[in-house]
Design goal:
Number of strands: 6
Order of helices and strands: HHHEHEEEHEE
Oligomer: single chain
Largest sheet: 6 strands, mixed
Length: about 240
């Protein structure tokens, strides 16, 4: 069977094929239209969703950037505040250090003042070294009579006068009167320190100068006075502690 025999159909059959063809064409066109419509509708919905998502992403990104900027601003403020706090801490430490230094200085001054007060309150005591120096300074010097007195009402001066009396006796001086009798003075000089009193410049005992130098050798600068109670006698007067 050849192709011509296959195409050799009746008119009725051809009309049926033609009718079916038109129907199929209309159906295809309708399906195509529906497909295209659905495609366009779906595309529009998808594009709208995509645009909505992109818009949301842009909004979120903008908010994220704003939040990041706010965080950077907060971080900068925090750093500034930290720097300020560090400066305040440094100033506080410096103030504390200065306060500690002032306190230490005050403690040192108080300790020095207490030491000076203790020295002031401590009674005068002749050390063995002073006694040895005093005795050595009198080597070869003449000796003589002396009388000793202390400031009235000053117990420290009286005890020191006893030490001076005993030292002079140990170096060969002679005490005027009973050894256990000490004189006293009330308003006369010296109110502080020691004085050596002689009768007059012309008639002062020959040993008075050596006695003055002996006191100076142990750090005591005696005041020289005139008007001793008796010619040829040196009066040693002990005032309050300087």
């Amino acid at each position: 069977m050849n192709l011509l025999s296959f195409l050799d159909i009746s008119l009725e059959t051809a009309n049926k094929f033609y009718s079916w063809g038109w129907k199929a064409s209309f159906a295809g066109a309708a399906i195509t239209l529906i497909g295209v419509s659905l495609l366009m509708w779906g595309t529009r919905v998808r594009d709208h969703d995509f645009e909505s998502n992109v818009s949301q992403l842009n909004t979120d990104a903008a908010k994220a950037n704003e939040r990041a900027a706010q965080l950077e601003s907060d971080a900068a403020k925090a750093k500034e505040k930290t720097a300020t706090l560090e400066i305040d801490v440094a100033k506080t430490k410096e103030s504390v250090a200065q306060a500690n230094e002032r306190a230490a200085q005050a403690e040192r001054r108080a300790a020095e003042a207490n030491l000076e007060l203790a020295k002031f309150k401590a009674p005068r005591i002749l050390s063995e070294a002073q006694k040895a120096t005093f005795t050595k300074s009198l080597e070869g010097a003449p000796r003589g009579r002396f009388f000793i007195m202390s400031k009235s009402g000053d117990d420290e001066a009286r005890l020191f006068a006893i030490q001076i009396r005993d030292l002079l006796l140990s170096t060969g001086y002679t005490y005027k009167g009973p050894v256990n009798v000490l004189g006293w003075f009330q308003n006369d000089e010296p109110r502080k320190g020691i004085a050596i009193r002689v009768g007059s410049v012309e008639k002062q005992p020959p040993y008075s100068g050596a006695l003055q130098r002996a006191f100076e050798s142990i750090g005591i600068e005696p005041l020289i006075q005139l008007g001793a109670f008796e010619e040829g006698v040196v009066d040693v007067k002990i005032g309050s502690k300087p």
